[in-house]
Amino acid sequence: MAARVAKGEFPGIVTLVAHGEEAHFDALGVMGFGTNEPIRRDTIFRITSMTKPILATATMMLVEDGALKLDEPVDRLLPELAGRKVLKRVDGPLDGTVPARRPVTVDDLLTFRMGHGLIFEPTFDPPYPIVVAAKELDLVMGFPDPRTPHGPDEWIKRFATLPLMYQPGERWQYNTGSLVLGVLVARASGKPLADFFSTRIFEPLGMKDTGFSVPAEKTGRLPSVYMTNFQTGKMELQTVSGPDVWTKPPPFPSGAAGLVSTIDDYLAFARLLLHEGVHKDRRLLSQRSVRLMTTNRLTPEQMATGGPILGGQGWGLGMAVATAPDDVSAEPGRYGWNGGYGTFWFNDPNRDLVAIAMTQVSDILFNGTTTEFAKLAINSGPG
Asked: Class for domain 2-59+193-379, per CATH?
């Protein structure tokens, strides 16, 4: 990782590998190109899609509370989504639909099989009528920035004007399920999503720097965000997620990609799952819930059509699951997820291992850095 920083692949990175209660941490480089401010252990990162496993955990807490059931239709709390129509062809006109064969369930949202999500074939985000309509409604279905200006009730009302792309349960499609699920969790809990996360997850785990916004006095701990412009091949500073954006709560707290966190905060969350729901002798989540979350729920056909984001892995509830030997490990069972701005996490229960890497350069997910880091973490031992 130090060699990659030295080559300018990213200005700085923090990494953490933990075996049991023992953890090794490194902070390498600086907060942004052109600055001398070092990246630190308490640096606050935009974790984007690493929000999804936290949302899944919140959902399972509500299932255990009896406020939700995995197999129930979402219509009870999201009446806007009753009576769904489904496109005859994903690239067809919006009025070319058939009735949904069954309602969308809570499980469909968690497993990304609700019938709506990102499209990767023939190209990412093709100009199909359904994609164009979602953009015109300011729903922000793909990248987390710029943020949607709509509150949860208005967002779900607008989303409900769109048909589904596929029949519920038919196909794995990324992201939209978590956006809808965030609205559902808020309604099921009777609290704003941020408040429910705080009271049930962040406060019990001591995740003091994790949330949907950042106090003004802490914004100096946010690094700059970079992404390669694939037309020019040059890495460019991204300005849509500047510190000023984070000083106020968002209109729509995105359960798909809305959180910031630190590496130690996320370690506390990762260990909760590795310990099958127990934190410091206090059970916050049942063992059964954790095992449901970390067990593949997809068919081989759904895994094969999951696009480059899923990469042939399985999917549990809110996170990927390695179902077979791969480039990282000969043993299946590893689970976790990435964030599109350059954050990465997995647990390996076979090795009692947590591995986390955080930058704010999206290229980390595509240039082999995560695979290299994962191999190093898997092959490391206690001490």
From this structure: alpha beta
